[in-house]
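hey m, so remember when u said the tokens were messed up on ur end? i reran from scratch. heres the input so u can diff it against urs
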Amino acid sequence: MIARADGEKLVFVASAQMGPKDERGIAMLYHFGERSAKGWAVRPALSMTSDDAVTDALSSAQANARPSQDLSTLGFSTNGVTLGPPNPVRGISQYISSGVGSERWISAPDPGMTPTTSPGAVLGGTPDFSTVYFLSAARLTQQDQTRSGDGLYQYREGVVRPAGVLPDGTVPTSGVLPAGYSTRSDIGNQLAQRNAVSRDGRRLFFTAAVGGVRQLYVREDGARTRLLSHALGAPTTPAAGGIVDPFDEPDLGVGRLAHGYAVATPDGSRVFFASNDALAAGAAAAPAGETNYYRADAATGTLTYLPGLRGPIVAIDDAGAQVLWMDVDGSSARRLMLSTFDGSGQGTSHMVAPSRPTVPQEIPWVGTTADGAVWTLGSRIPLDPAFPDTNGTGQVYRFTVDGGIPSTPRCLSCLAAVTYTSHANLTSFSAGTTENGDGESTKPVINHTVTQRSMSADGRRVFFDTRTALVPEDQNGLRDVYMWEAGRGVVLLSDGRTPKPSWFHDASESGDDVFIVTAAGLDQADRNQSYDVYDVRVGGGYATTPEPSCAGDGCQPPVEPRRPASTPRSDRPAEVVSGPSDLQPAPARVAVRRVRRDRTGATIRISTSAAGTVRVSGSRTVAMRRSAATRRSYTVKLRLRRPVRKLLARHGKVAVRVRVRFAPRSGKAVSATVKTTIKRAR
């Protein structure tokens, strides 16, 4: 899930029907949500087909999607399928979409060339995606037919052009990579982007191995390329030793997501990289085992040597004035450091935290305010001296910077006399893949390529989820969502009582809107016990809504709203994004599977969007009824009536039409019809 800076629009995934015009109810597909005076309105981001393979390929786990900054458009990849003409290839392709029926195939090859399928990912572009940059291993233009490695492309106004172009206008035959990637990066992971595409979409930073040596370049406005890793005093001469990825050394103390050749500021004005060569004034060739670090001005190509850096860069602030890095001194002594640099590269360095070599050295997530005054980290290194043992789990830390000097990090997710068994997470991109065997579901990875806001712009509020009960109201022993606020401490945002975990996903820039995913009925009308998206208005409570009228077999007694005592109520209530205001119980989704042929019937598979009752009936089949306590998928055997079985024996096949009626526990019953032909077994 991704929220726009003002908190008025979302991109998220859902596995239920979104609004009266959404007939699908298909698992984990992308939707747009936008707030209006009447509440939240939700619409699907992608079209749907009857092809189950397409459904699976467009699910959030496969599509590797990236939205535009204004959240008007979604960039995504298909996986082994085609969305139809003009793309004839059932393979991996890149698309953009602004809603149902608007999908555009952006990885289409030049006319006359044969479409091919290759891994790739949308990297970014202009705020509205009128220009899009993407990575693809396919060769899409006549200009890059001799390329053997990955390629970078620009899509604009229906035209695809190579974007990884050298200053002389050629495309490197060995391929190119986004500057935030290294040869160890995973395509599409979010930190590997490291601002390879600038916020305004005008600059693309990339690397290419030219003559067997990797160099750093910037492409501007899709029209010109500048060499950045150039020799001292020779802006058009590549550095003899090129650039290096400092994370290629074994276990340098940061998570695998941080591997990359370079990191740029969000506006694309500055980019940081490492080289063993002397490329700027004051630098000398790096001794064995050491590396030089440089800051490049993207507009001029001017390089500045940064003598205070002696280890891999973990993160930078928006201006590129402050750098968080790992000081590697020997095989195990790794200190987390913060350096502040002026325009000439002169600066000061201070230790944020000493090494703790006995615990996993991993910092999977870092965030900072634009001015670098406040930093938050998800770290497996215990950074707070008050909590020296976190049992190897990742916890949430915050520190401030005054005059270039960092304060001692404070653990926001820690509690005295607690044995930690799971991570606290600042983002929906989870650092771990399990919850250490505690039986809790793995946190859903909604988004792979965009950084969510885990901290308000002023740094006074930090949002995270954790399984540790930080307040008495958290009683379910499962993952819940918290806010830490300066001068106030931790506040529980989910209800802390529902028997299912809840997760933080994003927040508005001000932190006044916090978007969580929970199965708790925080709104009194939300009674389906399925996961919904809620907008928790900070400073508010949970809204109560008038009790709906109760009629019909599927009506259930009202559920009392659950409200944590630690969240004060006000006139700014939580709002349901994908809940009762726009969420209708999903219809039964029916797909015919010939699981087994025999003389008595066939087998169909039924998926329901919530708890309820399913009835299957038809003039030629025996009626049957199934009840489901939760949303589920299961198979149902269609048994032919005796006269129909005789017809099957006589004619060898018989047409069957069945009606599947799904009555959820709350909401309107819906139906689906299935037609199939049952053939006599041979």
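this time it looks ok to me. The chain is about 5% helix and 35% strand. if urs says something different then somethings off w ur setup not the seq
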